[in-house]
Structure formats: structure tokens, C-alpha cells
Hints:
Layout: H1 3-20, H2 24-29, H3 31-43, H4 53-63, H5 69-84, H6 106-109, E1 137-138, H7 158-166, H8 180-193, E2 203-204, H9 213-216, H10 220-226, H11 250-273, H12 287-321, H13 357-362, H14 371-384, H15 395-408, H16 431-443, H17 459-471, H18 477-483, H19 492-495, H20 499-509, H21 517-522, H22 539-554, H23 565-568, H24 570-575, H25 589-596, H26 606-609, H27 615-624, H28 641-648, H29 652-667, H30 675-679
Antiparallel strand pairs: 1-2
Bound molecules: protoporphyrin IX containing FE (HEM) and calcium ion.
Amino acid sequence: xxxxxxxxxxxxxxxxxxxxxxxxxxxxxxxxxxxxxxxxxxxxxxxxxxxxxxxxxxxxxxxxxxxxxxxxxxxxxxxxxxxxxxxxxxxxxxxxxxxxxxxxxxxxxxxxxxxxxxxxxxxxxxxxxxxxxxxxxxxxxxxxxxxxxxxxxxxxxxxxxxxxxxxxxxxxxxxxxxxxxxxxxxxxxxxxxxxxxxxxxxxxxxxxxxxxxxxxxxxxxxxxxxxxxxxxxxxxxxxxxxxxxxxxxxxxxxxxxxxxxxxxxxxxxxxxxxxxxxxxxxxxxxxxxxxxxxxxxxxxxxxxxxxxxxxxxxxxxxxxxxxxxxxxxxxxxxxxxxxxxxxxxxxxxxxxxxxxxxxxxxxxxxxxxxxxxxxxxxxxxxxxxxxxxxxxxxxxxxxxxxxxxxxxxxxxxxxxxxxxxxxxxxxxxxxxxxxxxxxxxxxxxxxxxxxxxxxxxxxxxxxxxxxxxxxxxxxxxxxxxxxxxxxxxxxxxxxxxxxxxxxxxxxxxxxxxxxxxxxxxxxxxxxxxxxxxxxxxxxxxxxxxxxxxxxxxxxxxxxxxxxxxxxxxxxxxxxxxxxxxxxxxxxxxxxxxxxxxxxxxxxxxxxxxxxxxxxxxxxxxxxxxxxxxxxxxxxxxxxxxxxxxxxxxxxxxxxxxxxxxxxxxxxxxxxxxxxxxxxxx
Length: 681
Ligand code: HEM
Ligand SMILES: [Ca+2]
């Protein structure tokens, strides 16, 4: 290289400090404004515009030597920051932009008040890509595979894999104190996200958003089957649209019924609050106006109810998954939060989400099914499969059983029932029946995640899962780990140190690089309970699940940019907020339990505040916490409103206190708030 060629870049480099020199005194003088900008950005508090940073930078640019390196850099940074002020493209719109090819109900289009609403099939979450995450489209694949073992058809049969690596060899209690109630809730979450089409396994008939589709359904016809259409925006009493839930444990159905009640509670409150002064008694409206009012009340109530559901996911559910509830911490990761990174760019949110096949396989938490739920399932499946033993069932038997059950299920959602519960003349199930199912589920410990942990009754379901995964051509466990930046396993004993498991796996798969994803995830060594770990699944699941949790919540427009009082109404917006000091350690589900089963969940009950934790185990954890308020909670099974009334009748002051608590539980936002103040928590 010649001397001149070497000298040119050196000279260029020198130009920058030289061109900055004249501006240095000004920069030093303005330093407090720059520091304020930096600290305000890092802390997320925003910078103080009274320090006139904008003006100072403009002066700096205008006075920099024209065409100097310094002026070029300043200009570039300034324009970049201004451009990054806003996300590109914008995510939130007032209503539906014209030209978006969507099935928008005419009542919604005719409504003069713009508000945003969830489409039945989840479409339009991202208005630029309206079909993103819509029900009925193929799954996404995140990780591709270059493994050829599967290609040559040398995998062991799905049945062998189940019998040797997955079949439960004994019940082990969950190490983190999670209750069966937690998994009933999880079961609603998974039905919200997956519905693998039986005739085309590539398709997912559920939307990729937690929009409470188990309650509302995923098609316009489903949604209409649960709506009353009477001008009040309410659903029929104690119904849900997704009939697959009727195959699930009774506590799962009972919990879903409470979300139906919550919808009706919310719709009624929005109607009575009448914040825009536009609602009228439906009896006074003509048919068209009644339909418009009903649509608005329904859609707003759905928005509030599904955001409430998501707040349970972020508060109670994720709180249990990462062990915060157990450890008495009310701090939560604010996943949907609006944040800028240090380059001033917005970290994306509300941009949509599509569920992947890998996530489907990661979320099959069948090993955690409690002993009580396993017994229930064995009885249920015995009836479903006409007594045929689980070892002999085929995928065709399963599909046939689904067809039979579907035919036997009343078309009218109001006639459906579960666990032989009876509906009253008003169409509602008895509060007592629902409450007892939920109390049982809270008391019943879930099982630990482990290899050889899946109840045998689920054999054919697992065989179908393994077969689907092979048809989907998913990656191997090691490929999946590499995708997430996790160390690849070198041998089977690193994956699961239990010799019974890793020698079996080695015999079946030969090389660790051939270990298929589903089996690898399910039979991997489980994480122990420790600070930061509450769910305690296999190591890989526990890492990868967080990526999907963020994609789901942060990617959903309704949970982020459209989570506003304008859309939810001020009352609805407020109803979805946490109350950090209400005794629930950052949770919110107790509010719904209290209001939908009045009198069954006393204000101080551990069953109300921590239903995802087994009370006796939670009590033990709380005793060990330095500031544990163990005596402020009641830990025994709630006895129901009659008992509460008897207790209250014991003294006049007690009656007064109980009456105000009852008002809070039944009528207001909470059934929780304020009452904890009284208890000194
Ligand atoms: C006793 C409780 C449970 C029963 C009886 C049960 C039963 C079933 C059945 C029958 C299927 C096959 C669905 C089909 O394709 O037709 C299935 C799939 C599945 N299960 Fe479970 N399950 C239970 C609990 C859970 C729990 C607690 C979770 C996780 C939180 C879970 C996650 C899944 C997932 C992700 C699928 C795949 C769904 C799809 O691809 O559409 N299950 N389960
Ligand atoms: Ca959904």
C-alpha cells in the first residue's frame, strides 16, 4: 500500500475531532441538558424539555462548520432520532382503515363512535397484515431442520417412545406447590391458542391471540351462538362456545363459566356507567339501533374481559411460572410496556403474532396433570372409548370418539353441561357446584414435570402428538436449543442424568442429535424449584416458553397500543389494572372469583388470592418469607355464603363490616380492593 493511500483515511479520521473543536465550549456548557436526556431515556422517565435540549442541538448544528464531518454526523443523528419518534408503520388506528378486506359486522360499521374490537377469527390484529394470526391458517415454523434421521424413517414408533420414555411410572408432587387450578387455567390458555385441524394437521383453527376464544369461539357463527343480541351486549348464562372444553376437567369448564359471568358483569357495568351517554334502554330502541348498541356493548365487554384474562396471564400465571407468587413478590415483568431502546427507537409492540408448531409441542403439559384429574380422565375416557384399553386405541378410534361426542353435544350452548351439573331455571349452574370444583382444584397438587410423567390414559393423544410433530417435520431438540442460543447437548446423559431415561433414549435414537423435539422436551431433566423458577418444566421448555409469552402479549395490538380507556371505557380500563397492595402478590384473578361467585371467596382467603398455589404449601412458603403475613390470610377451605352470613350475624359491627365487603364483592370493581387495607396488608 502506498504512503498516500495510507494517509487519506488517517486524515479523514482527524477531521472529526478537528471539526468538533470549535463547538466544544458550547457542548460543555450544554452538558446538563445532554445528561438529563440520557438519564431520562435510560430511566424511562423522559427528559425535561424545559432544559431546551432540542433548541440547543439545533443551534449546535446550525453553528457547526458547514459540510464538516461533525455537521454531517449531527444532522444524521438528529433526523434519525426524529424519525424514530414514531413507529413505522403506525400500529393503532381509529377503527378500521378503509379497504381492509375483513368481515366487519355491519352493526360495528354503522356505529358512529369509533372503537376497536376483536374480530371473531383474530384477523385484523395487525391492520397492515390483516390475516396475521388469524384462525384457520397454517402454523408457523420457527426452526428448520437439517436432520436426516427422520427422513429415512428410522425413528422408533410413537407407541414405543410413549411406553418407554413418557408413560407415568408414579405420581410425584409438583416441587413448586402449583395447584391443579393453575393447569385448569393453562388449559384455557392452550385452547385459546391451538386447535389443530383434524383433517389437515398443518392448520390451526384457533387464532394466535389470547382473545378468550374458548369462551367466544373462533368464527362469527360461534360468537353468535353465545351472544344474546338483546341490546345489552351480554352472553347467555354460563355458556362457552368451544365444545372441545367439554372434554376437559370439570374445574377447567367451571373456570371458563366464570369468564362468561365476568363478560356479563362487565357488559352490564359499561351499560350502566354509560360514559358517552349513548346507551338507552333496549326496550325503547328499534331493531337496528338495538343491534348497534348490542354490538358496541358486546365488543367493548369482550375487549375488557379478554384483557382481564391477559392480565391474569401476566400477573397470576407468569407470576407462578417464575415463582414470584410463591416468594411473596408483587413485582412483575411488564411485557406489553411501551419502551424505547438507547438508539431512541421504539421496541416493537402490537405488531401481531402467529403461533408456531414448536410452541404447540412445548405447551403440552400433560405430565403435570394431578392425581385427581388423572382419575377423572380415566373414567371419562373409559366412557368415551367404550371401555377399550388405552394400549389398544388408535388415532382413528380417537377421531371417532370426538365425532361421537360432538354429535351427542347439544347444538345450543345453553343446553350443554359438564360433570353432570344441572342448570337452574335461569340457565345458570349453581354457584355452590362451581365453587366446590374450583376449591377442589386449588387444594389438589399438580404433578411434577418429568420423564415418564404422562398419565397412561393419554397414550393415544401423545401418539397423535408425536405423529403430528413428525409430519410437521419439526427440528430436533438440539437444533431447537441452538436456535435459542442454548448449548447443544453432547450426549443423552447431559440431557437427562437419570440412567433409566438416558440409556433408553440412547437405545431408541442412537445419537443425541437425533432426539426429536417433542420427546426431547417432555423427557428432559426438569428444573428444580428455586428463586426465579416456579413452573419447573424441562430446562429447554422453561427458557423457550418466555419467548412465546412475550410474542403473545407484546405482539397483540389490543393488549398494547389499543389498551386505552377510549376503547375499554374508563371503567373497563380501570377494571383491568392491578392493585399491588391488595394481598394478591401482583395477581388479579381473585377479583374475578370474588365477583362471579359472590360470598364464596372471602376477602382474606388464600383460595382467592393464590388459587394457583396449593394453600397448605403456600402457607409453608409464606412462613419462611421475612415479611410473610401468614396470619392475615385464612387458609382453610371457604365455607360459602351461608357460613359467612352466620358468622356475620354474631355482632352488629361484624354485620356492618360484612355488608360493606359484600357490596365490594358483588357490585364494584373489585371484591378485593380496600378490604386488604382493613386487614392491614
Ligand atoms: C386432564 C386434562 C387434559 C386432558 C384430558 C387433555 C386432553 C387432550 C386431548 C384429547 C388433546 C388432543 C386434541 C386434539 O387434537 O383433538 C390434547 C392436546 C393438547 N393438550 Fe391436552 N389435555 C389435558 C390437559 C392439558 C394441559 C394442562 C395442557 C397445557 C397447559 C395441555 C396442552 C395440550 C396441547 C398444547 C395440545 C395440542 C392441541 C392442538 O394441537 O390442537 N393439555 N390434550
Ligand atoms: Ca385465540
